[in-house]
Amino acid sequence: MLSWLSLTMLGLFVGFLGTVMGVGGGFIVGPVLLSFYALRPGEVAGTSLVVVFLNALSGTMAYYRQGRIVFRTGTVMSVFTVPGSVLGAVLTGYIDRGPFTVLFAVMLIVAALRMIEKGRAAGSDSTKGQKTALLRGLRGWLLVGSLALLSGVLSGFFGVGGGIIHVPLMILLLGFPAHFATATSHFILTITSIIGVASHAFLGNVNTWLALPVGLGALAGAQLGAHTSLKLSGRTLELVFAAFLLAMSANLLYQALG
C-alpha cells in the first residue's frame, strides 16, 4: 500500500501531465489503484474519476485565467459527449472488442502521424491562426456535435478519457491551435467527469481515503501543468500529444493481440 505522500506525488504527476495534454489522467490512476489496493472495479472507476474531476477543475481555472478556453465549443461538445459515452458503454455488450480495439489503435496512430507531419509551426501560435480556428469552431456546430458524439462513443466503449479523442479532433479537423485544444478539452472533461463522480458517489464507489491525497496532488499538479504549457510552443504540444497517442495505441494493441 502506498503512503499518503506517495499518493499525493502520484496526483501531482497526474495533474501536471493531464493538464499539459488536456486529458484527465485516469489511465494512470486506475492501474495504480488496481495494482496496490484490493478495490472493486466500481471503486477504482469512482475514485479515479474524483481525481480526474479535481485535475480538470483546477486546470480549467488556470486555463480560464490564460484565456485559452473556447467555452461555447466546449459546452456544445460536452452536451453531445455525455450521451455518446453512455451509448459507447452499451455497445461493449454487442460488439467484439478485439478487432474494434485494433481499429481504434490504428486510428490513433494515423492521428499521431498526421500531427507529427503537419508542421504547424508557422501558424499554431499566430494570432491570425488562432482567430481563424476559433471562428471555424464556432460556426461548425453540426460538425462539432457529430465529432463530440463520436468521441463520447469511443470513450465509453474503450474506457479512455475523452481528451485522447477531443484534442486530435480539435487540432486536425477543427483547426484549433494546440494550446486552445488542450485547454478546451480540459473544460469538457470538467463537465463530463462530475456526472460520473456523482453517479459513483451515489453507488458508494468512491474511496475517500484514497481520493483525497491523490486529488490534492492533482489540484497542485494541474496548476503547474497549465503554467508549464504556457512556455511550450504549439508545435511542441502537438508533438508531445502525438507521442502520447502512439503510447496509448501501443497499449491498446498489446491488450488486443497480446
Short précis:
With 258 residues, the protein is an all-alpha fold.
Alpha-carbon distance between the two ends: 28 Å
Largest sheet: none
Count all strands and give the number: 0
Kindly report the average pLDDT value: 83
What's the order of the H and E elements? Answer: HHHHHHHHHHH
Global morphology:
globular
CA radius of gyration: 17 Å
Q: Give the proportion of residues in helices.
A: over 70%
Number of helices: 11
- How big a fraction of the residues is strand? under 5%
Class per helix and strand makeup: mainly alpha
Low-pLDDT ranges: 120-135
Description:
It is built from eleven helices and no strands. The protein is 82% helix and 0% strand. The longest helix has 26 residues, at 41-66. It has helices spanning 4-21, 26-36, 41-66, 71-91, 97-118, 127-139, 141-158, 163-172, 178-202, 208-231, 234-257.
Features:
258 residues; mainly alpha; 11 helices; globular
SSE layout and pairings?
Blueprint: H1 4-21, H2 26-36, H3 41-66, H4 71-91, H5 97-118, H6 127-139, H7 141-158, H8 163-172, H9 178-202, H10 208-231, H11 234-257
